[in-house]
Amino acid sequence: MVQSSSALQEQVSLFVSGRKLKDLDTFSKSDPRCILFEKRFNQWVQVGQTERIANNLNPDFQTSFTVAYFFEKTQHFKFVMVDDDNNSGTDFDEIGSVEVTMGTLVGAPRQTWTGNLIYNGSANRGQIIVRTQSVAQSNLISKFSLSWQNVNNVAGGCMGMCSSRQFYRCQIMKEVPGDNNRFVVAATVPGEFNAANVRMPMMQIPMGALCNNDKNARIKFSLQSNRNNTIQVFQECVTSIAELESGKTALNCGNNCTALVENFEVRVKPSFVDYLRAGW
To answer: Residue 114 pLDDT > 50, yes or no?
Structure first.
């Protein structure tokens, strides 16, 4: 029997952290960002990059990578850690890099691999930690909208002489397996908001992306701003698909703030064949 190409590959999420990174700044700490490359036809091709975290030598990046893992192919990846002082994503100083195969990443004990960053032959540049997780295939999709009440998004303005309501975005985050209380971004609600009470647009997120099809895995709703290239969290609350399905849709986010998960449902996403059978 001939196997299809899809049977010989799977999607894998990569969650990246840095530890004891080399400090390249004089009056502050490095502002790390991680860039991922894959070798294709003997050329390094950029796959993606994380967000920049200001003044942090031990970053846990909120942005993860999802790549295809081909079981019968040797895949080479390169992680490059940079100090991105101006937050451009293109003009930076390199902290260090390391090359590794996908087989090494997914075969690491507890799916956690640690490598030493190297720059110009020097290995005293810190370490990178990469956690892997196979992405569960699912035709389920979650659908809901969020309403927030009493958001505490007041922060200093007017050069510190007064306060004002800051704009924020809503990040929908999933739990990183094997990493205590760490979450990465699964989806972002479109738009920016600055009101204390706001109803956000309806979201539809595949269950594989939101919780890896595990209804008991924790998910987080986080209201964040990015002022002066520094992420500030205003409100956060944690739940799970199982809790939402049980009717616990009013979430206490602290400081008298509440998030209401409205019109929540998990449903089957029709396949292309289903559309054809329905006469579309």
So the answer is: yes
Query: Same domain for 232 and 256?
Result: yes
By residue range, what is the domain housing residue 95? 8-134
> Per residue in 173-229, pLDDT tens?
999 988 888 999 999 999 999 999 999 999 999 999 999 999 999 999 999 987 766
Residue indicated by tokens 């205590």:
180
Boundary of a domain, candidates 90, 109, 134: 134
The CATH number assigned to the domain holding 71 equals: 2.60.40.150
Pairing assessment for the beta strands 93-101 and 76-83 based on DSSP bridges:
antiparallel
Q: What is the pTM of this model?
A: 0.85
Q: What is the pLDDT of residues 1-40, one digit of tens each?
A: 444 445 588 999 999 999 999 999 888 899 999 999 999 9
